[in-house]
Design goal:
Low-confidence stretches: none
Oligomer: single chain
Number of strands: 13
Distance between the termini: 24 Å
Largest sheet: 13 strands, mixed
Structural class: alpha+beta
Mean pLDDT: 95
Strand content: 25-35%
Shape: globular
Helix content: 25-40%
Radius of gyration: 21 Å
Order of helices and strands: EHEEEHEEHEHHEHHHEEHEHEE
Length: 354
Amino acid sequence: MLERIVYSGQLPASFFDLAAPRYAQSSFAPEEEADQVRQLLRMEAGQHTVIVYTDHQRLRLVGIFPQAGSAAYFGFWETTNDAELNKAAFAMLEADAATLHKQTLAGPLHFNTFHRYRLRLGPAPSWQQFDREPVNPAYYPELLKQLGFQPSITFQSRLLRADTVPRVYLEKNPALEMLARIPFDFIPVTPESWVLLADDIARLIHEIFNANPAYKAVPRAQFDLLYNPVYAARLCPHSSVLFRDQRSGRLAAISLCHPNYQELDLPAGVAPEFARDYPRLPRRTLLAKTVGVHPDFRQQGLMDLLAAYAMQKFQTYYEEVIFCLMRADNYSLRFTDGLPVETAHYALFERRVG
């Protein structure tokens, strides 16, 4: 029997037990840290009505209702392939959305785009899973479509294999040659530089991405929950970089990359560290994760130059690269256009209420 539980500081005891059975036979599973989820809910509870719908065994679903605006969201969704069960749960969610005068319902989205959101579409790609990649059983998107949801924003990840890398170097050689002549300082992103520049990095990331669909600014404490010196320790110091404008001293662009540590199967609660874990990697795949240019410095070719910076030492440290979770209409996709790639697809779903 489905329960409707208004969140008031505590999650039901079954909440964190429901995901594991969905992935017991899979080579991938979502990354979910219980303490981090609890902190996130406590941080957001003051600005949202949060309601959990669950039968404690086969399904959990969280309705996220911002105090302002006409949009509602769902997240933390894990379920068996049971259309009737999901129909009942989403009907309860939609009834609450209507009562709270919401007009649209979108997800999965865990409050904002800094946290987990989107579904992966289709069969698992050859890499199975990378760090913080949206992963889910293949039937999840189909269940949503049966409930009237459609993709509203789509995304791609593209794997560039080792045998294509020489061609990339040939095509991108002009950008490599230009690096030495541009009026920017290059600051490798390390735990030490993160501590020194944390305020500037947080501000730069907001200014780069705040116009993206579904983006919502977060308090600094919530940003630091995910992006901090522990996070910086996983980054590749040879490809992760800040471009600083020499004239104004402002940060102009950022590229955050790190190896795919998934095959190491690190114990729960152990964060990867480049210095410790890179030498143990069975396959050296670079993940190009967060890459962007401040609006004031766009139209100067800096996206290609960020890639060129990483290419300087790429062949020394990596075999292949995945360009991760790019919006399907994003300019950055052009870097791999025309090259043979393996592509994974993702979507955020939406429907009208009523």
